[in-house]
Structure formats: structure tokens, C-alpha cells
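*** Protein under study ***
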Amino acid sequence: TWGTGPLGRCLINLLECSEVPNRHWILEYLALVALGFPESYYEGFVQPKWWNQTEIECFEVVKSGCPVYIREFENSSDQNVREAAVMLLKWFPSYASVSVPILWNALENVDEFEKIRAAAALALSLLEPHETFIPRATHILEANKWRSHETRITIISTIARAMPLDQPLNDMLLEGVSQGWI
């Protein structure tokens, strides 16, 4: 495991002090404390058999910080902190009732930073049911309120990832090209 429960609680407490520098690194490290390796499972999946009690405790401790991560996203003036908070929230569907409306607002806000809009799209593709995410994200994409191609491609790929397996990814990408989304 990459950390312990007490370490996770200490890091969450540090986040609440705005004078602490590089708080985005703390958020990123908390994801490692909760999940181990980046390719590990998130809460919606069955935890691997090889997770021991300490690793499960680490995950639960980091999950308990979700109200802090939401506050950081809403209140921080540091865009790196806000983006890291979004990327951490995506792993905790049990907080979706609070985080999802905030993430939709970020995605729909044309004045929001593009990296945060892209991170919100990725998080929403994991937190929202596909039948909700796909039409709403597609509508936002069609509105053409994007300053960067990178963000449009991120939105298209998250929509494509959320689609049922019987609908080929190529169809979505071709539609994106034909509609001028890319």
C-alpha cells in the first residue's frame, strides 16, 4: 500500500490550510493512498481480493475527505488544486449526489478553465449513469462552446467510452468529425 489511514487523515487536514503550498500534489497523493496504482479499481467495482485490511482502511479514510475535496474545488483560486480535486472525486460514487451537480456546472460553464471542464467530463463519465451522461454531454459538445480542440477531444472520448459496447467508437468519432466537433 502507498500509505496508511493516519497518513490519509493528516493529508486531508493539511488540505484545509490554504497556506500549505502545492496542495494539488496532496490531492494527487491522496488518490495513490486510496487506490494504490492508478490502474486500480474505484469504489463502484469489487475490490480486488489482494486488498488487505490496511488498504481498505486507506481507501475509506480518503473517501471520508470528499467534503474537503468538494470545498477545495468550489473555493480554491488555484486551478491546479481545483483540477486535482475533480480527478480525486471521480473515484467516489457514494458522493455523487453532491459532486455530480457541481461537476455538471463546471462542464457547462463556458468561462471555466478548459482543463477543469475536461476533468469534469471525465469524472462525470464515471459517476453518472451512461443514459444520463451521453445525451447531456453530447448536447454540451454540440453547443460548440469550446476554446480548445483538446477539450473537445476529451469530451468526445468520454462520451465514446460511456457508450454501450454494441455501438462502435468509430461511429462516434466519425460523427464528431462530420459535425465539426473535432
